[in-house]
Amino acid sequence: MTFYAALGALEQGLVYGIMAIGVYLTFRILDFPDLTVDGSLPLGASITAVALTAGINPFVALLLSVIGGFLAGAVTALLNTKLKILHLLASILTMIALYSINIRIMDGPNISLLAVDTVFDPLVTMGVPAHLASTVFFIIISLLIVMAVVWFLYTELGLSILATGDNSQMITSQGVNTHTMIILGVGLSNALVALSGSLIAQNQGAADVNMGVGTIVAGLASVIVGETVFGDKTIPRAIFAVLLGSIIYRLAIGLALGLELGGFSVSPSDLNLITAILVVFALTAPTIKQKLRKS
To answer: For residue 21, what are the domain limits?
Structure first.
């Protein structure tokens, strides 16, 4: 793997790591299988694309995408809590609806962002090389997100969300409205996913309605790889492990794409297969390790 390939994998690992943290909040914290992320990631990208082309400040565009992602997650949670639709089906319904909504927002399937200001421009102005500006920005914002999520989960509200996912009957007996906690948790999850989509669009120079395909698979792979390699005994360790798991996942994909064995090479169309193999390996690794210790 070349230096620029490794740098690209690091960038993708960091920016998609924000998305993976959002997936962690629903799947691990709330025990809420949420497929909305496949729609909320391009939602964040589409909102940002329209905002930037309209001349809105890129940081304001980030905020708008976060709000849009939160609303998308809240819709899924409302379908589940208020209309009693199964969480998995509720998230699929929202994801399908977001496909049409994203096209409506962009007035088409995609928008180019090659001639607009982005969040990376201030770093370039400060003297950071243009090819490193996005990497530096992603390092800063991903670490800030990790610290913010860890801080939030130790607040009274965050602990209520943790308790809702762990034992909803117990927390209900304490006077906490679990429906509100689910709406807030799923909303925050998709807000992070939409933020990731906004940053990806600004980094790639385009927003596309199909850029969210496979997002949930990549998010789950990052969560599982991170937990397997670094553990999840404490909240700070688990959140940081998810971010590192995303980086490892992207580096593994980069290595696989450059692999050639006897004339056989891996193509981008094999990414889903690679992801499946990584997830299977990560899930079975603890069992294999335990058997080896016993033997």
So the answer is: 3-211
Sign of torsion over alpha carbons 281, 210, 50, 5: positive
**Residue closest to 238 by CA, chosen among 19, 49, 94, 24:** 24
Residue 39 lies in a domain: yes
Give the bridge partners for 207, in sequence order.
Answer: 111
In a domain, 190, yes or no: yes
83 in any annotated domain:
yes
How far, in Å, CA of 182 to CA of 75, rounded?
A: 11
Q: Are the CB atoms for 202 and 58 separated by under 8 Å?
A: yes
For residue range 198-209, list pLDDT tens digits in order. 999 999 999 999
Looking from the CA of 12 toward its CB, the CA atoms found within 13 Å total 18
**pTM surpassing 0.85?**
yes
**What are residue 60's phi and psi, to 5 degrees?**
-65, -35
d(CA 216, CA 88): 12
Q: Does 149 fall in a domain?
A: yes
User: CA-CA distance, 181 to 165, in Å (whole number)?
Assistant: 9
Strands (E), the chain: 110-112, 206-208, 260-261, 264-265
Q: How many domains does the chain have?
A: 1
